[in-house]
Sequence to fold (603 residues):
Amino acid sequence: MNGEESLFSALAYAASIAIGGCRLFITGLKNLFRLQFDMRTLMTIAVIGAAFIGEWGEGATVVILFAISEALETYSMDKARQSIRTLMDISPREALIRRGNQELMVEVEDIQLGDIMIVKPGQKIAMDGTVDKGLSSVNQAAITGESVPVSKTKGDEVFAGTINEEGVLEIKVTKRVEDTTIAKIIHLVEEAQAERAPSQAFVDRFAKYYTPIIIVVAFGAAVVPPLFFGADWSEWIYQGLAVLVVGCPCALVISTPVAIVTAIGNAAKNGVLIKGGIHLEEMGGIKALAFDKTGTLTKGSPAVTDFIPSPGTDSKQLLSAVAALENGSRHPLASAIMKKAEQEGLDYQNIEVEDFASITGKGIKGKIGGETCYVGSPNLFDEVLQNGIPEELRTVILDLQNQGKTVMAAGTPAGIMGVIAVADVLRENSRDVIQKLHALGIEKTIMLTGDNLGTAKAIGVQAGVTDIKAELLPADKLSYIKDLREKYKRAGMVGDGVNDAPALAASTVGIAMGGAGTDTALETADIALMADDLGKLPFTVKLSKKAMTIIKQNITFSLGIKLVALLLVIPGWLTLWIAIFADMGATLIVTLNGLRLLRIRDK
Fold:
């Protein structure tokens, strides 16, 4: 009876091996004949060997647990790529389009450039475009990572996949479905996740030599003790098979890609586009980071920082008159003064200005209420005023200029009525960002600018950077980045992706701001911050460093667990059960460790 039960069990196990291991054997045997050794080759030899020495049960267990291990690997990579599927699902598949006098639902593939798309409150925007009519706020978190909805009015750009929060918007479609910002992001993220990072390439090269070595070690464990020391053949063949199983590089092979894919996907969900594992790894090792000043550390648009009326002068009347004069000017600083007047609620547009004229390189003049008024540089008033600028006022002007501000005076031939200082002001979060970067291990932060040294120092000190380089031409910025790379090996550059393209390309990692609004930034940068928000930078550095730590942990653990298990061969304690659980357990642990990157948030 026992013989029949034993035969029945063996047949059942053999059937399990044949059915469950069919695909494994086909691939493993093909690779074996081609002398291409991988994990399937190891498992195929182990299972056939187990059957050969009569260990049908353990052979079947190896097949089943290897299948579970592969399913776990597939699940983990699927989980890691989940963020990209989330991006794919955020855009509607159809939109309400007005053509002529008709409003009809049209699939996005059939929407044409120039079509008018109607988006009601609470609905998602299906295509990229510009607002043709309406006023609303739009939640752009899916694209830029911004948590606060952004106001949109006529002429403003909107993106597919974002949510219209309030009013009805009529949007003129400007891009086809395959060219939308979200489509480009998805394409670039998919490419990035498929790209092999340096650490992954190292693991693959290592596995190429590691697997044949394991086969040699297993053969030695099976043959040497019986052949030279008279040990039991069956027992040591079994040990050799266990070596094959425990030596399977499943955990090692998945250790890097699961971390890379998870990190890139998490970054995309938080409004940061990392265009490959190599850039993620390089970012994790950055020691020096250079910043363009204008539009990166600063807001990129001038604003009135000081408005100082002379004693006895009504500040509102003076600001209204200056704004009325500047309304006729095309000077870049004019918009800052008019914006200041609008913020104060002043109706300057109804003030009549006669005989308006521009004084090249110095300022403007015009008649208001029959009196000639001037707005311009202090040098203009050295000419206009008979006795020049009073010394006490000149001291105020010099003090403002030493702060890196552009100073203008306003007045009449009788005297100066007030002083206005304008500057490209620092972003609210720039100093906080620089402090966080230093805390994360960035040793040197450098501000690069073409501005004069006085202006550069004023902004650089406010920002808290460690070094300031002023009066640079684009070629000088490029040269400085090359010097940084020589000194620190890994040096990054943060800019707008347009004017800074040469310096971004020369840096170890080029980071562009405002990627959602410019195709150039998406194309030229290694990493794009989709919102015009410098605050995403510390999150990116933190994520990259954590990814590098986890990759190193995974590789070390994968190799360490193999070494410990292989040492069990010496006393003859290694079994197929221990071997397969060591392999499967290691795969599970490195997978879960890699998925921890999903928990890193932009705080």
Remarks:
- Residues 484 and 491 are 6 Å apart (CA to CA).
- The chain has a mean pLDDT of 82.
- DSSP finds 24 helices and 22 strands in the chain.
